From TrEMBL:
Protein name, as recorded: FmdE, Molybdenum formylmethanofuran dehydrogenase operon
Span of domain Zinc finger DksA/TraR C4-type: 165-194
Keyword Metal-binding: yes
Species annotation: Pelotomaculum schinkii
Superkingdom classification of source: Bacteria
Keywords of the record: Metal-binding, Zinc, Zinc-finger
Amino acid sequence: MCTEKSDWDKVIEFHGHSCPGIATGYHVARVALQKLQAIRAADEELIAIVENDSCSVDAIQVLTGCTFGKGNLVFNDLGKQVYTFVCRNSGRAVRIAVKGSARPKAPSLKELRDKVYGGTASAEERKAFHDHQQERIRYILDLPDDEFCEIRDVEIEFPDKAKIYDSHTCAVCGEQVMEPRVRVKGGKIVCIPCSEH
């Protein structure tokens, strides 16, 4: 018998494992879709502007359909657990800032995490870390929205829709490069890396 995977299962499959980071992105994406009364983007109906490159962004891609490939996932490298979602259909945008209380601190976790990721943890330490991670995931997923994040409607200039550009062959390395990224060096079309050597 074939059963439909849950959204959570789809996120885990895409990311490769469950962790508090994807739980954060999952919660954020669900809040955004609910607040904007939107559904997963088939094309560029939704735009996600993310301010970090953490695990959370994988969950946002799966649930909202905002991806780099479609051009409706914008990365602003600010290192903040802040996400802005824009709905082209309604003209609305919401900014979601995850609160510090959504990520409970465990004083001994850093040392344990370092051992697990460093490959020096015992079986007992790996289990303790796994159990702690599962507790954090459940906490993040179950936290009421108003305790998890600050949500506010915002006015922003909508990003342009993604453009498709012609490709050119770099005269030095022979690799394809999209037109707006080509450089001219010595009268020849080259890619950025080759233009710098």
